Amino acid sequence: MTPQLSVVVPCFNEESGLEDAIHKIHEHCRTLELRYEILVIDDGSTDKSWEIVTALSQTIPEVQGMRFSRNFGHEAATSAGFKKARGEQVLILDADLQDPPELLSAMRSKLAEGYDVVYGVRRSRAGESWLKLASATLFYRVFNVLTDNPIPQDTGDFRLMTRRAVNAFLSMPESGRFFRGMIGWIGFPQAGIFYDRMPRQTGQTKYNFSRLVKLCIDAIAGFSVRPLRIAFWTSFIFFFSAGACLVAVLIDHLSGIALPGNNTGLITIILITGGIQTLLIGIIGEYLGRLFLESKGRPLYIIRDEITK
Question: What pTM was estimated for this model as a whole?
Fold first, then answer.
């Protein structure tokens, strides 16, 4: 019998809190009196996360699992969970439970009003450093300026979706994935629910600064060509600026105003233009690299083990 709800739980090295998280999700879903399944996607954990999932699947009939052959990333784990999910509604919920499963009832009520996607909006984010908060704030602003499909600010992957929204998401074949951007791109009526995000109780966050930077680059390069247009216009401006400087230098030499041996201005111009050119080449290279990776057609992930019921 097709479940009414699928709860997708990506995890990576979450052994310290995974069992409690699954039990909490299970207990809350039981109170809603509906058919459900809990799909735990182990993103190549090196601890005992998979052993915990296997043991829980034997005592809780609703628990199923999938383990990757290595760590492919949160976006791949989310996509795998969506592909495996059979429910009429699909909830994405991280294993750290900083996003409360208790919000599920309010989200389902929103879907009943005609929305296809209901996402959580973080009113506050306890236990996070000022650097992470500042970088997250900056990311949303920059992303929405550079793309034509803005995403709601202060949101994460925590959201509930209808089957048709999930199917639309699964129809996108690209390997360079940014979940929040893809969900915004598919359209359909979407609404947010405000909540206070809890601090992590166990384990450590997997998103360090370098991963956040990579996510930012993936998001912008995957959903906008505006940086390429900025690169073009910047090159255009510098080309004519260089031409104007050349004319000014010639006039100075012909009029005898230029001081012999004073090349400070010229050196400064060369350094600035060289730096800008290197940056522009890097932007173009980022897009070319993505074309190269997409052309390989490699799978998003490889499954090592799977628990299906």
Answer: 0.74
